[in-house]
Amino acid sequence: MTLSISGTGIGRFGRRKEGLEELLEEAAREALERAPPASRRPGLLLVGSMAPAVLGGLENLVPRMADRLGLTGVDGYHVDTASASGAGVFHIACELVSGGRYESALVLAGEKMTGAPTEAVTGALARSLSPHEIRHGATMPALAALVAQEYLTRHRIPWEELGEVSVQNRENAVKNPNAQFRTPVTLEEVNRSRVIARPLRLLHVSAISDGAAGILLEHRPGPVRVRGWGQGTDVLEVASRPDPTRFEATRTAARRAYEMARSSPREVDVAELHDAFAPFQLVDLEDVGFCGPGEALTWMRNGNGAPGGSLPINPSGGLLGRGHPVGASGLAQIVEVARQLSQEAGPLQAGHPRMGLTQSVGGLGSHNFVTLLGREEGP
Known about the structure:
With 379 residues, this protein is α/β, with parallel strands linked by helices. Helices cover 37% and strands 18% of the residues. The strands form two sheets. The chain has a nine-stranded mixed β-sheet, sandwiched between helices.
């Protein structure tokens, strides 16, 4: 199997005046322009978006984008895997292109969220949760808070220390020209921000955002190889999980990705993890095998995840800093890591990584994805 990423595109995340079609087109055109001229007519167009009708007022995304890009007649599919739609659409592209049906695929993912009322956004996100928990008033932040409470209690971590994740990721985002938030925050500012659902405060939570990303995937050698991918699912109802302090769907996805790549966590040099809520990054670090249970915060404090550390985490600023247009984030992570590997990350460049990992969460940890990329000359 030889899959490579030959072009990447990503626009600015945040409050954008453009609609979803324009955001997707912006990312698509950049990805195609960065690719070799001979690769600019893909055989497949895939579009990931969680709720384009409810949030962006659009349906039938594939022919819309094919028209805008001059790709009429191309095969295509729209993919929804909740807040992991960007990762889900990339994995489907990998399956279809590696199977030989297509030589190349243009993969797009995006979301337009700021044009919808807050209640509509909250409702759209909640529809990915368990119906039973929704009937009892559960929202995404409320369930994330329950996960955080259990994690902090089990590992005897004061809630005030959760903000260290937000501080680090916002600091990383300062250098990212595409980030929604380019102003650093202090731990005191995080801990004084408005309560959302205890122990989570405003600056522990990713913001409503607009944005899109694009990738040209090819069945041939290239500067960045796709080494492995895996996904996993878990029961929808968070209260029914044996251990809410870990995402079994991530652990399954990571195991499958490592097995496909014939690799291990020790070989990863850079990673983009799903930090829609600050405590999720701590859970993610443990789930993908970078550290043991309850060790994530200490691992970070030792400088391991800093831009100059042994394994930089979210050099882009992550979802907390770059922004979280839900359908786009999973693919944006892959774009960021691909650029790290090809030394095209500009001010975000974190050394000379040979292998990178991305991890994306769908729903409240019910459908998660892990992707491994490597430099062409990598192991």
